[in-house]
Every structure is written in structure tokens, then in C-alpha cells.
Amino acid sequence: MSQAQAPTAAGTDPAASEQDAYRKKLAADLEDFLGRQREVLEDVSEESVPLLGAVHSLAKGGKRMRALLNYWGWRGAGGDVLGAPAVRSGVALELFQSAALIHDDIIDRSDTRRGAPSVHRHFANRHAEAAWFLDGSHFGSSAAILAGDLCLALSEEAFTSVGDRAGYATRARALFNRMRTEVMAGQYLDILEEVVGPGHEPERAVVRARNILRYKSAKYSIEHPLAIGGALAGASDELLAAYSAFSLPLGEAFQLRDDVLGVFGDPEVTGKPAGDDLREGKRTVMIAYALSAASDAARREITAGLGRPDLGDDAVASLRQIIKESGALATTEALIAEHTEQAFSTLAELAVDEQTRSALKSLAHAAVTRTA
Amino acid sequence: MSQAQAPTAAGTDPAASEQDAYRKKLAADLEDFLGRQREVLEDVSEESVPLLGAVHSLAKGGKRMRALLNYWGWRGAGGDVLGAPAVRSGVALELFQSAALIHDDIIDRSDTRRGAPSVHRHFANRHAEAAWFLDGSHFGSSAAILAGDLCLALSEEAFTSVGDRAGYATRARALFNRMRTEVMAGQYLDILEEVVGPGHEPERAVVRARNILRYKSAKYSIEHPLAIGGALAGASDELLAAYSAFSLPLGEAFQLRDDVLGVFGDPEVTGKPAGDDLREGKRTVMIAYALSAASDAARREITAGLGRPDLGDDAVASLRQIIKESGALATTEALIAEHTEQAFSTLAELAVDEQTRSALKSLAHAAVTRTA
């Protein structure tokens, strides 16, 4: 699924070749859509254009996992090759993801995103470079709040512009709405867990962490994009249910892999500092396992270190060691393997053409074995 | 237009009586809409419901100016009395306004809204009361970012649920989209002006301040709601142009009045601290006039005081004095009077029935003479 793999595979594998063609149409449609938005901002004032520029820079990157899942959901339900509705809904999903990332990075105090400054850092940097007045960090966050809002509004504008298939009372629209509400609720539970977690029913921590994972990520990143593409192509209830039976465990495995990378990932590959999730105080499923399995002393060290922005490399190394020794890393890997197996066995039986099955298999494989 | 006036006027004036009936339908529809959203959040987790609760508490208050303008825009274009599309679009506009306020209050560091804690303060207070872990102020802002995002998504969900009249490629949808993009661009220009303003082409400060006022407020608060209601009822291009000729100057007068109240308003009536706009560093049209007309010493005092969160009551009183003595208050009042006159003279000729004209007259009067 990574952008480096696709060109190699294309030409030999018809699914990869079609996916490459979709990627190109998606990129062109995103440029076209944002280009017309640029005109609206220019009408307001040339000085407002950098707000869209920040959205544009972020949205043109990324692996396009959500757009691609949406595309194969569409194709698997009989949608035509490179169909315009699946291109435009891909743009909508990628813009929604960009909006979520912009606000997430403020919430998580992340200074980098895809190896570049996050949007709030970008605006704080502009402030510093130009030596503007007042608080540059607050200006950065404020501008990023507005950039995220703009991006969220644009994602919906793109989705509506799919036309009748995404109109009021359609299945696709209902899924799009549910996706938005669920991910915001899931993100709220995530930040709530960070501040409440340490003292709140520790025996239920794993249950809570798995619920958060499901709503803030698994459904929104994997299940909903596939279902939205399918619904746009008029998928039956039966096919949509089969899509979910494949995609929800895949989504859970995907996010569990993300949680492992957030602690054990290589900064050179992830583009984020080592152990970033620890500094952010993320109470992931793996952390919940570690807290329930570690010794008292180790549990105290985890609790004391989590959420400390100034956590040093030695402290990160020590926490990694504890998480490994507690067995939490192995338990998480086992859960990833279990969910992955469930997803692949469902995929093998899925009532879709072989080209779609092949494409979904590649995407699924990349989602759970990735290193960034 | 205030909620206190409406009941008195109803019963004698048919426009006021109809408007009261609309308010009731609007309130009921908002409850119904948010009640169904609550079920979505309950499916995620009971613990996520407070996110919607914060949106609900805010959205059920307010003067409903945008919903009412939308209603009379609808009626003036021949829409039926208490028509469901105008009720639901009113809900969408009020939710959009709530979303903007939630994020604005983070950006402006406003602790109060409508006499109650702002949403980020509300969540920070929950954190403090429950003695949760980590940084309560950051938790408050983060939760409010998510609450605003949810509210923004819900405003669009409500707008789409108006049905075919608000579907893709309709005039109403195009206006709704433009409203969102323009207000976010306008808000960005507003925060940019606060940090760039002091050193940037002072001779153009008034021009910039008037452009910001137009996009961040006048169009979105007054012009667009009236036009959206009209478009939903199938208003002609001619009628929509006439609506704008009335509503844009009215919107400018409305925001200029807001700027005067932000410096000279009575905290008992506005529900916000005295001189709040000065502490927030708002570079309003009135401030731009003051900077261009004041003595060098006075200009330095304004520049030094603007944007200082710790500005005391004496400093506020001194800045008020300077703004008065520079003639900026009088110039602003003259501009309000000029725009108001233009709005009322256009309204007198507007091709709408007399009941709509009467209702718009009351709304316009309240918008420019209000004290809160």
C-alpha cells in the first residue's frame, strides 16, 4: 500500500495497475477541488489564502488508505472502474482525515506530522519568522483550529458534491454522518481516559481502551471508508455486513499496530519522535495490558511517566523494557494476529470479484505489517 | 428581537405572533435532532455523552437572530408559514453559530459565554472538580475543540436533512458552503490582524478591519441566513440581490455595534467582562479609527494595552477615554447610522409582503440598537 510499492507492482498486477490509475485521478480531483476553494478565499483576501495552503500541504500527502478502501468498496459492489463518485468520495474522506489530524496534533501537542511541522507548528513558525506581536504559540493553535474547521467543512462539501448517491436519506450519507459523530465521540473518550484513566476502575481499563480504539480509529479508518464506497455503488445490506465482518477486525489490528509503533516505532521511519505516545499519555490497549500485568513498581513507573512531555530517551527505553517484560507487547501482537487472521479468513469468502479481493488483500496486509 | 420583548409583542402584531410560533417549532426541532444524536453517542459509550451535552447547553440559548432571519427570508420569498425546511435550516444555522462560538472562545480565551462558563472552561472545571490527572486547561481546550467539531458536523447534518431544497447544486447549498468558507477565512484574518496589525501598513488598517468585519460577521450573521432562507423557498436572483442590498449594510452595522459593546458595553447586560475586546486585542474598525486619529502618546497607550490579558479596570477606563477623545467612537456611531439608514431605506422598497417587512424591521432594529 505504501506509495513506494505501488509503481513496482503496477503493470504486472491488474489490481495494482487500476489502483495506480485511481490514485492519479484522486490527486487530480483533489487539486481541482482545492483550486476552486482557493478562488473563494482570494475573493475574501489574498492574506487568507495561507489558511487553505496549510490544508492543501497536508491533504496532498499520506498513504490514501481511506480513499483506496472506499474505492475497492465501490468496485466490490459493482461500481464502474475509476468511477467519478468513488474519486470524489475519496477526496472527501482524505479531507476528513486531514481535518482530524490538524486538530489531533493540537490536542496531542505533536510538533511533526508526516515528517514536516504540524499545522499549528507551521503557523507558530510563521509568527516567529516574521517576528509578529503577541503569543506565537497561541496564534499557531488558533490558526490550526480554523484550518481544521475549514478542512472539515470542505470534506463535507466534497462529499455532497458526489451528487444523488450521497444525498439526504441515502445509505452512504448515513454512514458518513455516523463516521463523523463516532470519531469525535471516540476522540473525546481518548482524551478523557488520559486524564481520568489512572484512578478509574483499573480492572476495566482494557475494555475501555478497546472501545476507544474501535470508535476513534478502527471504524473510521477502515470500516466506514469501505462501507461508504460500497453504499455509493448500491451494495446490498448483506454485502455491507460482510464488509464489516472483514473490516472491523482489520481496523482493530491496524490501530493496535499503530499503538505498538507509537511506543516501539523507529523515528527514522515513522517521522515522529521515539515513544511519542508515551509522552502524549495515550492509554492504549497495550498500555492497559502493561498496567494490569506489571509489578507494582513497574506500574508506578508507567503511571509516573505517561503524559510527561519532557520524558527523556532513557525513560522511554525503560518504559519500553517494562512493557516488553510485562508481556503486554506479546499480548498485543497476539491480538493483532488474531484480528488479522479473522479479517483474512472473512476476506477469502467475501462475495466480490477476484481483482477487488486481491486489492483488499494488499491493503490489509500493508495496514497490519506497516512500520510507519 | 430579544427573548424578553417577543412575548409582549405577540398577540397584537401578527408578525411577532408568527415569529413566536416559529421559535417554539425551532426549539422543539433542535431538541428532537439532538435527542437522536444522543442515541448515537450512547451507542459509543455513556461517557461520551457530555460532549454532546456541552453542545446542547450552548445551542439551546441565544437570541436566534440567524434562524429568524432565515425564516423571514423564506417567508419573504413565498415559503409557507412555519414550513419545515425553514425550521430545520434554522436549526442548522444555530448549530453552526454554536460551533463557531465554541472555537472562538478558545481562540479569544473567553471564559464566559451567555453568562455561563464557555465550553472549554466547562470541561476545565469538570477536570478541576473531579481532581483528574494532567493539565486541566489543556483538557478543557481539547474537549472544546472536539465539541466544536461535533457541532460543526451536526450543523451540516441538519442542513442536509432539509432534503432536496438543500441538496447538491442547489442555490441554498452553495450559499451554505460559501458561508462556512468565508467565515473561517474572515476569522483567520481577524487573528492575523491581532498579531500582524501593529506594524503592517497602518494607513490601510481601517480598510482591513472593515473587510474582516464583513467576512467574519456581517455576511455570516445577517446576509447569508436571510439569503439561505430565501433560496430554500426558491427566491429569484433579483430578490436575493435585493436581500443582500438590505442585509449586508445591516450586518455591518450589527458588527460595528458589537465592536462598540465590546469596549463600552455594560458587563451586567453583555454577560462578558468590561472592555473584553481590548484584552483580547481585537483590531476592530473602531480601534483602527482610534489609532489613525489619536495623538502619538495615545496611540502608544492603545498599542501597549491591546491584547494584554491582565489589563485592569483603570487601564480599560483610560483606553475608553482615548477612544472617545480621538473621535473614533463618534465616527463608528456615524458609520452605524449610515449603514442602518441604507438598510432601512432598502427594506422599505423590498419586494416582500408587509408581514415579512414588519418582522425584518423589528429584527434590524434590535440588531443595531441592542445593548448585549
Automatic annotation (TrEMBL), chains A, B:
Gene3D superfamilies: Farnesyl Diphosphate Synthase (1.10.600.10). Its cofactor is Mg(2+). Keywords: Magnesium, Metal-binding, Transferase. Pfam families: polyprenyl_synt. PROSITE patterns: POLYPRENYL_SYNTHASE_1, POLYPRENYL_SYNTHASE_2. Residues 1-21 are annotated as: Disordered. InterPro entries: Isoprenoid_synthase_dom_sf, Polyprenyl_synt, Polyprenyl_synt_CS. Belongs to the FPP/GGPP synthase family. This is Polyprenyl synthetase family protein. It comes from Arthrobacter pullicola. The lineage of its organism: Bacteria, Bacillati, Actinomycetota, Actinomycetes, Micrococcales.
